[in-house]
Structure formats: structure tokens, C-alpha cells
Amino acid sequence: MLRRLPAKSEPMENVFARLEEYTKDDIKVKGGRLFTYLYDSGLEELARINDIYVKFLNRNAMDYHAFPSTLRLENEVVAMIGSLLNGDEKVTGNFTTGGTESILIAVKAARDQFLEKRGSGAPTPEIVIPVTAHPAFRKAAEYLRMKPVLIPVSSQSYLVEPETIRNAISDKTAIVISSAPNFPYGGIDPIEKIAEIASENKVWLHVDACVGGLILPFLDKIGVPVKKWDFSVPGVSSISVDLHKYGYTPKGSSVILYRNKDLRKYQLYVNADWPGYPMSNIGVQSTKSSAPLAASWAVLNYLGEEGYLNLARRTVSAKEQIVKGITSLGYRIVGEAETTIFAFTSDSIDIFEVGAKLKEKGWFLQVQPGSSEMGMPPSLHLNSSPVHDKVAPDFIEDLSEITESLKSRHPRTLDQIMKEVGAGNGKIDGPKLIEVLTSEDSPLNKNKNLLYELIRYLPSEIVEKAFLEMVNNDFSSSVE
Ligand SMILES: *Cc1c(COP(=O)(O)O)cnc(C)c1O
Known about the structure:
This protein is an alpha/beta fold. It is 42% helix and 12% strand. The chain is built from 17 helices and 13 strands. Helix 2 (49-56) runs antiparallel to helix 10 (291-328), helix 4 crosses helix 5 and helix 10 crosses helix 12. It is globular and about 65 Å long. The structure holds pyridoxal-5'-phosphate. The site of pyridoxal-5'-phosphate has 12 residues, from helix 4.
């Protein structure tokens, strides 16, 4: 049935009540049981930031001449983050809606600089992307019609090897990507070496510190060693930093930084070629609320370096407790766990099953299929937050119980999985699998574990096609 706009107005209480009802199946964001989606400071006082959010909700940051507070707030936020990342007064940037927007506009800047330099007859610009880099870079390549050059990482550390970057660079390379840290395993790429290679080749180097930008600087200061990765490394051109992760600001806040405004220039969009007002946009959006910006400014000022240091201490303590607990239960960290996000796997029991059992007990971790082709094991991913410092012992206790109960359980083989989902006898047949993945009564819809186990063995094109179908069907105007 097609849902229509109600003919009549509805009392506000009813609207609120119905909304509340809609949230009943959402995972609970309070209580420290989420190890993904949310970076929880555990600080009650930060709830007051919600008032600031509401106060700035209807200011339109599109026009900072009409709302000069937005320009001032944005320049101050960018300067605070830029200086934290060892930038000088030339470092500049902008506030955006999230990591994806920061990445999209930085890649656009690099592409447009490349195209300008090369003039007419320029080749299709290439973007060198390590497989561990966030999918936002491949999305940017698709949106911006660039050619992604995917490179493998070390099978031991899961970090980029500088020589692989050197070999991937050509005279068509517009930009090279590295991560500090990468999301799946939490490792920091050897940015100093990569930057040397990028400089020698006069290629733009972007460091994605979406998740790390507001925890790495404080780790260093509390004695957790961190490799150099920020503007202190010559050759780093731009850095993306999410505030809505370890910055503990409301969702919809990130910063993109550039070494100088000659680079940032390529990010901007202006248009005076229509009958309306001359339009100038910083990033993807035009009309946008000042609320995330004002709230971010407030959190940064409220916490200050002191606040972030205290939160970093709790995050590290949480991480250390959890790493100690899981390794003593026989699990294995994938890669290095050199930051506060990491992944673990098991060589003897089914890690997807562990994830499902944890979920039954109210804990939520990200399941990572890994890739049999790339030799990356399936794993459970978690980002530790300050709030986990207190709940870590409970988590380990539950994990211990689960581990005991699963002792004899081994991962299924591909043959077994294929039989269970009714997709033949181990032969990967694309169309058949898409049918199974997208049919409503498929066992895969009921058993997400089975789905992830299967994904692990499938060529990514098949998984992508199937997911596209699923999403295309899920968002629909036909509702009960
Ligand atoms: C979260 C994240 C992104 C994307 O950011 P969004 O805010 O989700 O758009 C990019 N890179 C890394 C490493 C991330 O952790």
C-alpha cells in the first residue's frame, strides 16, 4: 500500500508516541554495549550539547554573510583540529557532514588539480587505493569518474607496503590514499615512507584519519607510541578527520584539512551563471543547518585537551582490558591492534557464531567477512570508547561463557554453506546466488551468519549486485 500524507493534522502527542513505537527494534545506544556505530564518551554532561544543537538548528550555514557566526565557528573548529595535527597557519579546510563528504571533496580537489595541470588531452585520472582504505574512496572514484587502482596490503600486518605504492603510481596518478588508521584492523600505514614516494612523484597524498584524527594525537601524549602520520610529515597534502567519532560530537560532523589554500581552492564550487544569486558552496551541500557545527565547536571547547586526554586514557584502558581478555580466551588479534580499534578472530571456533551469541547477550560488534581470496580471516571488529572502560569485565565474562559453549564448533565449509542455502553443490553460480540472496524466504534473510559466511567466499561483484537489489527493494513507498 502506498503511504500518503495524512489528510488531517494529528495531535503532537500522538506523533511523538508513534515515533517512539517506531524505535522499538533499534539497537540500544545507551549503556556501553555497542562497539560500533557510536563513540560514547560516557560523560553525562555532554547531553547539554543537545540544547546547542536545537538552538542552531535553523541557522542556514550556506550563507555565512547572513549568519556570520557560522564562518567564525567553522574557522575556529578547523584551526583547532589543524593545529592539533601539527599544521601551521597555512593549513586550512572546512567543516563537512561526515567522513564521506570530507573524502569526496578532497578527492575532487586532487582530481581537478590534476586535470588543470595536464590541460586538454589529460588522461582519466587514477586514484591509488589500498584494499584496507574505506569504501568512500571507491565511491568517490565512481562519482568523479576516476580510475581506482586497488593495491594489496601486507598479509602479516595488513598495512600498506611503500614499494607497492611506488609500483602503482604512474603518470596518470592524481592522488594516493593512506589510512591513520584503517577501519578494519586499526593499523596505521607507514605514512612517512609513503609521503616520500608521493613527493618524489609530485603526487597528492591524502591521509584518511576519519576514525583516528581525534584519538592518535592524545595517545601519543599518554605514552602510547604512534607512528608519524599528520602534517608534521612533509608530503601529506590533505587529511580527513571525523568529529562524530573520537571527537564525541553529534552525528553529521567532520573536517577536511589541506596543507594550504592553493590545494583547497579546487574543492570549492561557485556559479554565477543563472538568474538567481551568485552561488558559492564549500562542499556537497548548499542549504545546511549550523547545528552540527555549533555543537562541535561547543564539544571541542568544553573538553579541551584535558578532556580529550582523560577520555583517551579510559579508551586505552578499555582496549587493554579487552585485548588481554580475548587473547587469554584463545582469540587472535588480526594485524597489529596499535590503536583503539581492532579486530579479532579464532582459529578453532566459528567467529560469526561468537558474534551472534554476543548479540543475544546485548553486545553489538561489527562482523567482518574478510576475504578468502585476499587471505583475510573473518573477524569481529570493535572500536573501544571511554564508556567501555567500566563494562569491559562484563564483556569478557560473557565472551568467556560463549567461548566455552562453542568449543567444539568449527566453521562450515563452502560446500556445507551452499547446501544449506540451496545454492547447488559448491559451484559459484552468479545469477543463482543473486536469486537466493534476494528472495524473501531465503535462509540468508533469517540467518545473517550464514550470509556473512557465504560472502566470504563470493566474488565481490556478485555480493555487490545482490546487495544493490536488496537495498533497492528495501527502500520502497509501499508500506504496511
Ligand atoms: C567512518 C570512516 C569513514 C567514513 O566516514 P562517515 O562519517 O561514515 O561518512 C572513512 N574512513 C574511515 C577510516 C572511517 O572510519
